[in-house]
Task: structure prediction
Amino acid sequence: MVLIGTVLTHLFGGSAGREGTAVQMGASLADALLHRLKLTGPLRRQLLAAGVAGGFGSVFGTPIAGTLFGLEFLVLGRIEYAALLPALIAAVIGDMTTRALGIGHSHYPSPATLPLSPLLLGKWLVFSLALSVATRAFVELTHLLKKQAALRVPRLPLRMFLGGLLLVVLWRLVGTSDYLGLGVPMILRSFSDPSLPPYAFALKIVFTAITLGAGFLGGEVTPLFFVGASLGNLLSRVLGLPLELGAGVGLAAVFAAAANTPLALSVMAVELLGGALFPHAVIVCVLCYLLSGQRGIYTAQRVP
Result:
């Protein structure tokens, strides 16, 4: 159902991602198997982590980040090391299967190496503060619209109709389709275009929150990439950072904070953008994770 719903959301222009759907599908397939085998306790958690890792690693082409995501995802602030081997196997096989089917992934430019310095660390702190505010805005607005829409318009078909109508009105007012669908072209533009609209990240937050709040199915990952990359582009221009570096770090850090998975996204930045990004991505991902308050997009994430 989540697969069909996500395809329909994208077909009609809803602002949502597809990667979160892959994670849900991986987890639900693993859970269905666990119920059939009547497995519970620690083994169930390990195989659920493997299902999440397989979905995440295959849809992005990042098996190592997928492995870490599965380990970080289950319990907030903890890493499920017992699931390391099954998660790694699932993520690698998922990635290999996707590639064998000829499915390609988005390619991002690799930024040049930039040594750390006290001044650069200060800029990353300011950068992280701005990203954490945007992340919190995305999370809170999405949760608020989902809750209020369900209370005020209990009938899902009517809620989706009204939400879709509002999206069409906003689309006409904005005058561009840049904020509908996945938004990958705008993500790629963030790495090189110094004239990117400074409000791009805010519009994507609004479009995505309305889409998901109205009940349309889809993920939050690619919209969060959009928010992080476009805001990173803006902050790079303000702080005097290379556009490619700022967009790449922003792309990873906003999702790291929203999903409470800073280690996985630090590694993912390397798999997607190259090793030159690694120290910067780690610093900003960890800072955003701490500054955003650890309230994330996944309400089912367990708290120890």
User: Anything to note?
Assistant: Residues 118-291 form a domain with the Clc chloride channel fold (CATH 1.10.3080.10). The CA atoms of residues 26 and 153 lie 31 Å apart. The longest helix spans residues 118-152.
